[in-house]
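Subgroup meeting minutes
Present: P.N., E.W., G.H.
Scribe: E.W.

1. P.N. recapped why we're keeping a running log of single-chain structure predictions: easier to compare across weeks, and new members can see raw inputs and outputs side by side.
2. G.H. added today's entry (226 aa).
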Amino acid sequence: MQDLPLFLFVTVLAVLAPGSAVVWTVTCALRHGPRHIWASPVGTTIGATVIAWICAAGLGAVVAASPLLYALLTVVCAALLIWLGISTWRAEPVDIAAIAAETARSPEEAAKSRRAVDRSIFIPAVLIQATNPTIYVYMLSLLPQFIAPEADFTRTALILATIFGVIVLLGHLVWSAAAAWARRFLSGRKAALVLNRVCGAIFVLLAVSVLFDAFRTLMPALARVA
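Output recorded in log:
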């Protein structure tokens, strides 16, 4: 591999840039607090790393080169973001006092509740990454630039993809921890309700943005077909 420091720098900037995955991580940490800060970062990392490995193996090029597959992934991704937006908008506000009251419940009930919350955070985090077609394009354009011509392409790409996954995990843990810390300033049912409304609206706007970007990307292919 070549220019590894530059690859690390570019990847850190990409990971920390606000996007649908970052919004989900921050939203979940703000809503559910420090007990659940790991769920979204781990889910996001699994989704991102699997996509990066797929691209490193060359399979991502199939998605990027196929207008039909790209459009299908775009629709799935947008539908997921809209569903998350509506679910977050309609979700019952989570008050810090209610979270603190978990200690009054039996350990079994509290553990069961925490596992349910973790699942509700983790699974969408994986799906947000796995269904985002722009990640395929991004990884396919990024990886070849940092692989020397004489190197084993697949092996080097897999190493870079794994490094990418580690940076995703660390970056989202930072986002999640920061949001959980900031949560103390948003205590109260009214603040939680406003948070749900704002985050829900952001997810719907992100869905519109995904569809618009995909339409703009697919326009040349559609024009050739016509």
